[in-house]
Structure formats: C-alpha cells, structure tokens
Amino acid sequence: MTKTAFITGITAGFGQAAARLFVRDGWSVIGTGRRQDRLDALAAELGGGLRTTRLDMRDPDALRRAAAEAGDVDLLVNNAGLAPPLESLHEADLGELTNVIDTNVTGLVTLTHALLPGIIRRKGAIINLSSVSATYPYRGGAVYGGTKAFVRQLSLDLRCDLHGTGVRVTSIEPGMAETEFTVVRNHGDQAASDALYADMNPMTAEDIAGMIHWIATLPPHLNINTIEPMPVNQSFAGFAVARPGS
Q: What is the distance in angstroms between the CA of the first residue and the CA of the last residue of the chain?
C-alpha cells in the first residue's frame, strides 16, 4: 500500500526538498505552504504524487480542515517555521515574535493534535524540525530558540504519550543550513544571508531532506529520539564574559 506523508512548508528549503524526495520514492505527499504560485509550480513538477494545500500555520480552523481532508497519514513532517531578525527581546517587534510563536508552537501543536489519531491507527511517525537553537543560546535567539526548545521537548514527551502505540517521534535539530529561511528572517536581505554562509560549506536542504527520509524509512522497531546535524565547519562558541569598566 502506498504510504502518505503530510509535510508542512514545502514552498522552499527542507520541506520542498523532502517533498521531492518522498514523491520520487513512491510516497503520496500532501504538502502545505502559504505561497500558491510555488505550490502550483512544485505540483506541476512532481505530478500526481503531490497534493498541495495553501495553509497558514497561524490559522487553527484551516489546520483542522486540512487534517480532516488528509485523513489518516503514515508520516507527519512538521517543517514549517519562522524566525524573527536577530534582535534582543526588548528591541524586537512584538508582532513578529507573536507570529513566530503562533507558527512554530501553536500551529504545530494544533496540526499534530488533529492528525495524531490517524497516525496512531497507521502506526506511523512524526518528524519535528527543531534546531540547535533549542540547546545552544545566542544573542537575539530568545523567542526562536524558545520555540525550538518547545518542539524538542514536545517530541520527547510525545514519546511517553505514545508508548505502546508503535508511533515513532523524532526531533531533528539542524545547525547551519543554507536555505531561503535566512533570507526571510532578514526581511529579504540576500546579501546578509550570503555573508553568513560565505566560505563555510553549510548543510543544504537536500542534506536534511535525506535525513528525514532515512528516519521515516527505518525499520519500525527503531526510533531516533533526537538528532543534531551540523556542518563540519560549525562548532561551539563557548561562554561570554562581561568585565565591568572594560
């Protein structure tokens, strides 16, 4: 029987690469995104293996309708997400921060809640896209990192909730990957994105899509709880120390 994957955020980046990979592997993919032109282009490229739905993760009624239309699925990939510009909390735009929380947390929970009964019936899997920001703090990352820490912990606690059902849950926590995500975070500033990734050989969308596919196709008795991929050229920055008077 053909397996069905529900993948959010397929108009760019990890989600788009994952949609391509799963369709080409014979899966039926239901893919969502906000940009209709990109959904149409990807559907034309991939043909009948992809069914698209225009969806805003901040609209709970639309999320529940999309889940009802999808029916039972074998795999949910919670990929759609936003990040605000790198600004300290008190200097950031509160509306932008609210959009990030509504997308990365509330929308993810709403969609997962709606699809989970069918995933349990299928003994399927949930793969959540978190981030190294869930674990490693940095200036300007308070809200984004907080949402990704939530996604990580939600994934682990879902393992407890779903014990005995056969459903697998994974949190993927990538480091630096060059996608459109950073351009959007910087309000369309391509130069800032290019500068961030210059000469460091970051991961690609295809790298993460391959990891999603690998996890989804593991033998059903195996669960990857969390996985934290980074490019070799990314490491850890250590602690910052403030010295009064300096």
A: 67
Q: Which amino acid is at 100?
A: V
What pLDDT shows up at residue 187? 75
Please check whether residue 158 is in contact with residue 212, taking contact to mean a CB–CB distance below 8 angstroms.
no
d(CA 152, CA 162) in angstroms, rounded, equals 16
Instruction: Measure the CA–CA gap between 62 and 158, rounded to whole angstroms.
Output: 23
Mind listing the pLDDT tens digit for each residue in 113-132?
999 999 999 999 999 999 99
Q: Which residues are catalytic?
A: 144
- pLDDT over threshold 80, residue 188: no
Q: In what order do the strands lie in the sheet with 168-172?
A: 50-54, 28-33, 4-8, 75-78, 125-129, 168-172, 226-227
128, 155 Cβ separation under 8 angstroms: yes
Q: Quote the CA–CA distance of 192 and 12 in Å, as a whole number.
A: 18
The average pLDDT across 81-107 equals: 96
Among the listed residues 226, 14, 242, 231, the one whose alpha carbon sits nearest the alpha carbon of residue 139: 242
**Which pLDDT belongs to residue 246?**
64
Domains and CATH numbers, the chain: 4-227 (3.40.50.720)
Average of per-residue pLDDT values in the chain? 95
Sequential DSSP letters for 131-173: -GGGTS--TT-HHHHHHHHHHHHHHHHHHHHTTTTT-EEEEE-
Statement: residue 43 has pLDDT above 70:
yes
